[in-house]
Amino acid sequence: MYTISDVAKLLGITAHTLRYYEKEKIIAPIRNANGERVYDDSNLAWLRFVMRLKQTQMPISQIREYAHLYLEGEHTAQARLNLLEDHRISVQSQIRNLTATEKVLKDKIAAYKDFITKGTGIR
């Protein structure tokens, strides 16, 4: 079992973020006898998944929807699948955009290197 500060350190996020996720009903930590939040390994695995979704720009509202569907049970599997497939399309678009941006940056860096070493113009 982990305290809120343990989880924050382990995941590189703040306790405030964890409280926010709880407020948004994205996670529901257990409370100990003193009323303090306590997290288990399944909470950590779920939070790692949530962080992946956030890193890929999934809105909190969709993460909340996914969490709600999960808690509703197995009969929501198709809805969860649809949500993740839609998000995957978004991630694939982000990858294409990042790849194109990386190419532009690579070309610009090469132009600066040429300018610095050869004195040729920067485009």
Automatic annotation (TrEMBL):
InterPro entries: DNA-bd_dom_put_sf (IPR009061), MerR-type_HTH_dom (IPR000551), MerR_fam (IPR047057). Transmembrane segments: none annotated. PROSITE patterns: HTH_MERR_2. Keywords: DNA-binding. GO terms for molecular function: DNA binding; DNA-binding transcription factor activity. It comes from the Bacteria. This is MerR family transcriptional regulator. The lineage of its organism: Bacteria, Bacillati, Bacillota, Bacilli, Bacillales.
